[in-house]
Write a structure and sequence with these properties.
This protein is α+β, with helices and mostly antiparallel strands. It has six helices and four strands.
């Protein structure tokens, strides 16, 4: 089987991570793959914010926890040492789709390099808040962006979970 398809079939969402950092060269490869995601009219409406700074990672995790309504102490980033926030230009008609394709590329690239990943929601709510807007401003990011998702990254703790069976009537052919 083709290696790309094999990675698509074996990638899983990981919700438990080792504490060791993701090496910079692996982060760079994952991020590069994200920049090559398809986009509406080739506009590249998305932006990628790679977060390995522990203080900012924990701050975003806490904001996400509060938005999600979880108890204090819960980490919605599941201990992953790296977080990649994907945002996209609010005014571009395909911005959500474009950002979603970036997320898919990030997760597949991570898996192909032996890293675990998981799409974490609530980036939209985070970066719509005044605190979230200030974080972007502090990072030198200007413009109107909508948070699409967080791709958490790290080395999986334990075995990869098995794939659930594919549902009936998933595919229809019109030949």
């Amino acid at each position: 089987m083709n290696a790309v398809i094999e990675h698509m079939l074996t990638r899983r969402s990981i919700r438990k991570y080792q504490s060791r950092a993701v090496p910079g060269e692996l982060m760079d490869q994952v991020i590069l793959a994200g920049t090559y995601a398809a986009s509406g009219k080739g506009h590249q409406a998305g932006i990628i914010v790679a977060i390995t700074d522990r203080e900012l990672r924990d701050r975003l995790s806490e904001m996400n926890r509060k938005i999600g309504g979880w108890e204090e102490g819960f980490d919605p980033f599941y201990g992953a040492p790296a977080v990649v926030a994907v945002l996209a230009e609010k005014g571009w008609p395909t911005h959500v789709y474009d950002g979603s394709l970036i997320m898919g590329n990030l997760m597949l690239a991570a898996h192909s390099l032996g890293l675990g990943s998981c799409w974490i929601h609530r980036a939209r709510e985070t970066f719509e808040s005044e605190e979230g807007k200030q974080i972007l401003k502090d990072l030198g990011i200007e413009g109107e962006y909508e948070g699409i998702g967080y791709c958490i990254l790290g080395y999986p703790e334990g075995e990869l979970p098995p794939a659930p069976p594919r549902k009936e009537h998933f595919v229809y052919y019109a030949c």
